[in-house]
Amino acid sequence: QVQLVESGGDLVQPGGSLRLSCAASGFTFSNYDMSWYRQAPGKEREFVARIITGGSFIRYADSVKGRFTISRDNAKNTVYLQMNSLKPEDTAVYYCNARGRWDNYWGQGTQVTVSS
Description:
By secondary structure, this protein is an all-beta fold. It has strands at residues 3-7, 11-12, 18-25, 33-39, 46-51, 58-60, 68-73, 78-83, 92-99, 104-106, 110-114. The strands form two sheets. Strands 2, 4, 5, 6, 9, 10 and 11 form a seven-stranded mixed sheet that branches. The chain is globular, with a radius of gyration of 13 Å.
C-alpha cells in the first residue's frame, strides 16, 4: 500500500537547522510531484515547498525562501527538506505530499518545534 513516512522533526533552538526526510513506497515515486506542507496549532495547513518529478522546477512559500531547500532522490524514493535559520514561527507539524495526475497522498507528519 501507499506510504509516506516523514522523519527528522525535533526541538531546536532559534537559528538552528533540521533536515526532514519523507520515505515513499507503494507507488512510482519518480512520476509524482513532491511537496512539503505544515500546520501550526490553530492554523490551516499551508504550502512550504514543491519539487516536480525530475527536480527541474522548485517553488517555495515566501516565508521560507532563502532558508529552506527541498530536494529529492528518485533512486531512494525520498524527498528532503533542509531547514536553516529556523524561527519560532516555523513551529508546526510538517507533512509530505505526493501529487500525481489522478491521485494525491499524505504522510502522517513530523513535529518541528523551534524554541529556546
